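User: Hi! I'm working on a homework problem where we have to compare a predicted structure to a textbook description. Could you give me the structure for the chain below?
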Amino acid sequence: MLVAMLRAHALALIVLFYAGIAPAAAGPQAREMRSCALGDIETRSVPDPTSGRSYDIQVSLPSDYDADTSKHRPVLYLADGGRAMPRLPCLVKALYSQGSLEQEPIIVGLSYGEGENLEASRKRDYTPVPLKPGDTAYGGAQAYQRYLGQTVIPYVESHYRVDPGRRLYWGHSYGGLLGAHILLTQPDLFGTYLLGSASFWFADHVIWRIEDDYAKANSDLRANVLLYVGGDEISRYDPSRGGYTKDMVGDMEAFEARLKRRGFPGLTIRSLVVSGKNHRNTIPAGFTWAITSALGGENSN
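Assistant: Happy to help. Predicted structure tokens:
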């Protein structure tokens, strides 16, 4: 059923992702869609009081948010919000309108540091350790995680009608690494983790040590974890780099196997290798599988 679902949606979702346009759903079950254009996404300044850095959040609301004030919604936080908005909110709205999601979540895009180069911002905020003593370009994940937990999430939950028990996190590449770090150091910050093509290779696979430390200190890990990676993300010689690429498929499988071996009773973990996709173009199909697995509706299979 999964293969059939991905085939049915693949072309439309790829067009949607790269064009940033949500297709209208057909048939009597179609739900009304709220605009996902950038002009209809709320931008709020939420600075970090500890570091003094300025960050924005971008908020996309469900289609019936204003009409039904009694509902408290799931909330999906997107790392790399500067890249993911408005494409992923458009994708979510399309999936909800066609019945593939049971509920349409509030979506919060997490920006890069204001005035900073996006790569510099994400390398610092999304990685768990510096690469060498005194290095400040990497290793700020713990500080950024503290900012999310103590500043961003309280702000969102005080300004929007969200269900605190249904927080979801999505991250890709370094964003997936950040999600894995949160999962293994403060797992209750989110209930569901959608981790795509995560950079588990970073700093000689330091995430393995972080996982070991968690397992030694804890007998359970209460979380729903959904992992995906492109089937082409394997180790191969790349002449343009003059070396071999990372084995992202093997790393994802190793991460999943490590957690399964622990036998944590509260952990649910699944994965998908998206055949024929690479690090960039795996996002539409991988994200679609992950979000429909997490919030699936009547037409999700």
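For your comparison, note the following. The chain has one domain: 40-91+104-291. Residues 40-91+104-291 form a domain with the Rossmann fold fold (CATH 3.40.50.1820). Good luck with the assignment!
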